[in-house]
Amino acid sequence: MTPDGPVVAINNHATDPHFEPTETNSSTMSKGDWVLIDLWGRIGDEPSVCADITWTAFIGDEVPKKHLEVFNTVIGGRDAAVTLLEKAYHEGRELQGWEVDAEARRYIDNMGYGKYFSHRLGHSLGREAHGNAVNLDGWETIDTRTISPKIGFTIEPGIYIPGEFGVRSEIDLFYYETGPTVTTERQTSPYIIQVS
Question: Helix (H, G, I), strand (E, B), or coil: what is residue 58?
Fold first, then answer.
């Protein structure tokens, strides 16, 4: 379906937004590791729209304080973008892709992590994981295309601290004529994977 494989990254590998484990660069997961997983796909063989999600988890009993702080900052940026989309819809105001990116980026900047958010906020979805409609982009380009009904896209802010770890939370949103709706699970805390 896509030329890229899924992202399964632990610890420092999670600082690379597009990390792909290979035979030579993979690591064994163990207690105390931070895990980032980015997956996409679609249901059935017939052409349908892709879903694309990223979740993070900690292997152990209690998430380290810094990891939790960064996670909560990412979630805050993600939710600020969703709130802006909902507010604009209720006000009858159209948004361009870059404006949504700017809202999440502003939140993350205000929390002191802006320099670690190194990609656009999101991309459109289609029959491939990356569609051809508006992107939520004020980083790589300034996407001035309007977000309008019948478009699906991701919202996926991330913070990547070199030499340490990365956090991304990716959700999908479909812009119905009745307003924007999140269509995938909205992670609210890091998943805990307990091992003995």
Answer: strand
